[in-house]
Design a protein that fits this description.
Helices cover 66% and strands 0% of the residues. It has 431 residues and is mainly α.
Length: 431
Amino acid sequence: MKSTRSCDPVRVLRTVFCAFTLAFLVAALIAPDRSDMLAGLGRILTGPAQLTRDYCKPSLGGLSASMLNTALLAAICTGLTLLPGARVNGVTALAWFLTVGFGPYGINPLNLLPMVLGAWVYSLIRREPFSKNIHFAMFATGLSPLITQALLYYPDAAAGPRVTLVGALLATIIAVAVGCAMPALCAHSPSFHKGYDLYNAGPAAGFLGFLIFAALYRTTGIEAPAAVADLSEGHALFINLFCAICFALCLVAGLVLNRGLGDYPKLLRDSGYRVDFTQKYGAGSVLMNLGAYGLFILLYYNLIGATFTGPTMGAVFCMVCCFAAGATPRNVWPVMLGYGLMGLLHRLGVTAFPVNGQALVIGLCYASGLAPIAGTFGPVAGIVAGALHCVLVTSVPLVHGGFCLYNGGFTAGIVCFILVPVLEHYKRVER
């Protein structure tokens, strides 16, 4: 019998990327508002990208346009992974799904490509092949709303979208600065969260976003645009069917590659701490985790009664992105329970946000990055980590003005900074 370990993980991941790209394109073509697809894409490209604007809302884009935008992002990111010498592993998969997950809100080709340019400039300065740094190009897009703001709306957002020479120059400077700074900051981030935040780029983007936001607005005295939610009424049936079909096919494909469960039970028992599942368990088990974890997330959002807006769909993909880098249903459920318990406090009138509110639906996405805490220190620690994340996540956007899409990953890093030293002080962990 052929072992699943003999399946090339790189080839499997590239196939997954191509398949999801095609799936998003097909979804765009069959969406009920497809007649407005191209006009809607124009609205997405020229509209503000600050948290949280739902591209599925007709006035901001529309469902079909949002799916097309996501397909275009997926095609660009897939193209990066196909470059000769490109490193394709669990981190690459995380970066790919994380970037594509913002297709329904926050990222579009216009504000993504300058970040790719920034990573290319970084590669030139370091005298390294650009293919070695494609994941940094994708991680840099966590600050893509700043590109849109500088290019089209700075300094007077009320004047509407317009391209000026000064705006284009400012956007280029920001892109190059972010592209050159993110690799260094990502390398330093583990010393901040000690490896317990799977969204390692979150703290890097958060602090960098804080700096740039302060430089553009606080320091100059220019009034910053308010970070407000602009959401659609949701598309529960369409988004549920799309996600369920995609993840179910991944689960079946993993079973076929494994010719059964293979090493997936072992993968589920992994703590998720500083691990690349593609190297440890093989392509089949990783593909099974993508499917099972995706369906698990979808089930949770349906159980809590989430509204399936563009940001909700994006949260599903941004959450599932760690499927090859440490997250599983087994080490994420305690974090989910922590959020659920905070939702009970809302029902008692103690907290302001319901667990199915858009802010916490997106917040949970990144709280899942705390999975290694649950996997290492146990489920109670995971529940506490999830609750702390829920407490902090709605306050952190004040720091970066809503221009950092990795707000929840930034928050997860802060939770690690507070919680992990306490856990390590009282509980010894054998590695």
